[in-house]
Amino acid sequence: MSDPTIHAGAVLTGATAVLILGASGSGKSRLALALLEAAATGLLPFARLVADDRVLLEASHGRLLARPAPALAGLIELRGVGLLRFPHEPVARVSLAIGLGETGDRLPEINASWAYNGIKIPYLPSPAGVDPLPLLIGRLRGDAAAD
């Protein structure tokens, strides 16, 4: 039996990856492409696709690892266009999750987290109807400044 996957995306942004969560049609692939473009234009220092649509997660030694589903490795589906192929990372440690289409407070809980098999990582809710890229880049830059 193969390992289970979750409906999500993952993009390596520096040394660690962002896990992109949301319902079907919420913009996960669009955000993954926007992160890749942000790196290509210098808005982020680095971004590389890990997985789109299906992510294989593994809790290992206190870390959360993301891998692409083998059949989808290197592919992003762009609605209205089809499948696009990109270079990809075979595995990355996840350090942040963003949830697309969230409802809730205007200012998110500061210490919000998301957990998988006992591994908790920071969680950034992104409200429906709001472009998640500036929110995510702000968070990533803030995390980098804190390091």
Task: Please characterize this protein's 3D structure.
The chain is an alpha+beta fold and 147 residues long. The protein has a single domain (5-146), classed as 3-Layer(aba) Sandwich (Rossmann fold). 19% of the residues lie in helices and 42% in strands. It has helices at residues 28-40, 132-146; strands spanning 5-12, 17-21, 48-51, 54-60, 63-68, 75-78, 82-85, 92-102, 113-116, 119-127. The model has no long low-confidence stretch (mean pLDDT 91).
Question: What is the topology?
Answer:
Elements: E1 5-12, E2 17-21, H1 28-40, E3 48-51, E4 54-60, E5 63-68, E6 75-78, E7 82-85, E8 92-102, E9 113-116, E10 119-127, H2 132-146
Parallel strand pairs: 2-8, 8-10
Antiparallel strand pairs: 1-2, 1-3, 1-4, 4-5, 5-8, 6-7, 9-10
Largest sheet: 5 strands, mixed, barrel
Put simply, the count of helices is 2
CATH class descriptor name? Alpha Beta
- Helix-strand topology string: EEHEEEEEEEEH
Strand tally is 10
Q: Low-confidence spans: pLDDT under 50, at least 5 residues? A: none
CATH topology: Rossmann fold
Question: Residue-averaged pLDDT, rounded?
Answer: 91
Tertiary shape:
globular
Give the CATH architecture: 3-Layer(aba) Sandwich
Radius of gyration, taken over Cα atoms and rounded to an integer in Å: 14 Å
How many structural domains in the coordinates?
1
Name of the CATH homologous superfamily: P-loop containing nucleotide triphosphate hydrolases
Distance between the termini: 40 Å
Strand numbers in spatial order across the main sheet: 1-2-8-5-4
Share in helix = 10-25%
User: How would you classify the helix and strand content by structural class?
Assistant: alpha+beta
Beta-strand portion reads 35-45%
